[in-house]
UniProtKB/TrEMBL annotation:
<protein>
    <submittedName>
        <fullName>Membrane associated rhomboid family serine protease</fullName>
    </submittedName>
</protein>
<feature type="transmembrane region" description="Helical">
    <location>
        <begin position="184"/>
        <end position="206"/>
    </location>
</feature>
<dbReference type="GO" id="GO:0006508">
    <property type="term" value="P:proteolysis"/>
</dbReference>
<keyword id="KW-0472">Membrane</keyword>
<feature type="transmembrane region" description="Helical">
    <location>
        <begin position="241"/>
        <end position="262"/>
    </location>
</feature>
<keyword id="KW-0645">Protease</keyword>
<feature type="transmembrane region" description="Helical">
    <location>
        <begin position="218"/>
        <end position="235"/>
    </location>
</feature>
<dbReference type="InterPro" id="IPR022764">
    <property type="entry name" value="Peptidase_S54_rhomboid_dom"/>
</dbReference>
<feature type="transmembrane region" description="Helical">
    <location>
        <begin position="133"/>
        <end position="151"/>
    </location>
</feature>
<feature type="transmembrane region" description="Helical">
    <location>
        <begin position="158"/>
        <end position="178"/>
    </location>
</feature>
<dbReference type="GO" id="GO:0004252">
    <property type="term" value="F:serine-type endopeptidase activity"/>
</dbReference>
<keyword id="KW-1133">Transmembrane helix</keyword>
<dbReference type="Pfam" id="PF01694">
    <property type="entry name" value="Rhomboid"/>
</dbReference>
<feature type="domain" description="Peptidase S54 rhomboid">
    <location>
        <begin position="115"/>
        <end position="258"/>
    </location>
</feature>
<dbReference type="InterPro" id="IPR035952">
    <property type="entry name" value="Rhomboid-like_sf"/>
</dbReference>
<dbReference type="GO" id="GO:0016020">
    <property type="term" value="C:membrane"/>
</dbReference>
<keyword id="KW-0812">Transmembrane</keyword>
Length: 270
């Protein structure tokens, strides 16, 4: 009976052996964990030993890649300050030029019928009033700094703007598709995109570690996101709830894709 099992790895604790047994189970392969002197061994059928060893090697390589990359809090806060000053500058320009929103805001028909796609980007810099601007600066700025500590400051801010831009495009398309007039402005789509980026990166980490406990750090940004939605008034007449959802969704997708790309095993071409 012992000849029917082949050892593919040993670990010092039962928890570690059980964790790596999930790799075999994910491949729909029977396995067992057996005690050994100084640790625990994972055993599988002989015909599955080599494929399982290969997957265990890939899994080990993935776990060696750090989740946080190029963390740079000082630079992240610096870029957050630049972002805040830029929004304040645009708000001042808006007060001097009342026609500015007409040229910059996100207009579904102008974007999808006239090809003025840049409106989905420029709308991120416009705000209806000081309260709208202040909400994005205070809570949104914190989200954006968190994104910078995960993806790196420059890359993180590029992802935030991309999620806001794509979220505005998606929101406008949905309204345009159903022949509904729609116009919007504000950085909240990018703010919720930042929340989505954090969640997306956390989901990848949880999946790779094969444990739900890795999702616990997401509770803080999710709670803050709920507070932000309440601050804007989820059911208010001028609240773009769909835009918030689209921004979050785009952020989650970009966060997952970027985390997978950054943590991919490095290939040595020598």
């Amino acid at each position: 009976m012992e000849d029917e099992w082949t050892e593919v790895g040993t670990w010092p604790s039962l928890a570690q052996a059980d964790e790596h047994a999930l790799v075999a189970l994910a491949m729909r392969t029977d396995c067992r964990v057996m005690p050994r002197l100084g640790g625990f061994a994972l055993e599988v059928a002989p015909e599955h030993a080599e494929p399982i060893r290969h997957e265990l090697g890939v899994y080990a390589g993935e776990r060696e890649v750090p989740f946080v990359v190029e963390a740079g809090p000082p630079l992240s806060w610096g870029l957050a300050l630049v972002w805040g000053l830029l929004l304040l500058g645009v708000q001042a320009l808006h007060e001097r030029d009342p026609e500015l929103p007409g040229r910059w805001l996100n207009d579904a028909r102008r974007v999808w019928e006239d090809g003025e796609w840049w409106r989905a980007f420029t709308a991120l810099f416009l705000h209806a009033d000081a309260g709208h601007l202040l909400g994005n600066l205070l809570i949104g700025g914190s989200f954006c700094v968190m994104v910078g500590t995960v993806f790196g400051a420059g890359r993180g801010w590029a992802l935030i703007l991309a999620s806001g831009f794509l979220g505005n495009l998606a929101t406008g398309w949905i309204h345009w598709h159903f022949d509904e007039p729609f116009r919007s402005l504000g950085a909240s789509t990018a703010t919720f995109g930042a929340l989505g980026l954090i969640v997306g990166a956390g989901l990848v980490r949880s999946w790779r570690e094969r444990r739900y406990g890795a999702l616990k750090p997401l509770m803080v940004p999710l709670a803050a996101g709920g507070c932000l939605l309440s601050l804007y008034g989820a059911g208010g007449e001028n609240t773009d709830v769909l835009g918030h959802l689209c921004g979050t969704g785009m952020g989650v997708v970009l966060g997952i894709l970027m985390t997978l790309w950054l943590s991919r095993p490095k290939v040595d071409w020598q």
